[in-house]
Design goal:
Elements: E1 8-12, E2 21-29, E3 35-36, E4 39-40, E5 47-53, E6 59-64, E7 67-69, H1 70-73, E8 77-78
Antiparallel strand pairs: 1-2, 2-5, 3-4, 5-8, 6-7
Length: 79
């Protein structure tokens, strides 16, 4: 399996206007058993750190506790 760790990724809006980029992040882990926010990543998610937010009010695909928007996730690790 090729490693994805360290690659830059762009998040797109999942609920409105799917063509709009909302944030940039770096992949930290693709280990499906890794816990992020108390949940395993599973096959559909990877762990990233959000380093640049374009649209602060964009909804996270998988919120963590009270963190539900890209603006709240800036500088943090999310799935």
């Amino acid at each position: 399996m090729l490693t994805q760790k360290g690659k830059d990724v762009i998040f797109y809006n999942v609920y409105r206007d799917n063509a709009s980029p909302v944030a940039k992040a770096i992949i930290l882990s693709i280990d499906r058993r890794k816990l992020v926010g108390g949940q395993e990543l599973g096959l559909e998610y990877c762990e990233v750190v959000v380093n640049y937010v374009i649209k602060r009010d964009a909804i996270l695909p998988r919120g963590i506790g009270n963190m539900n928007t890209m603006g709240q996730a800036q500088g943090r690790c999310i799935a």
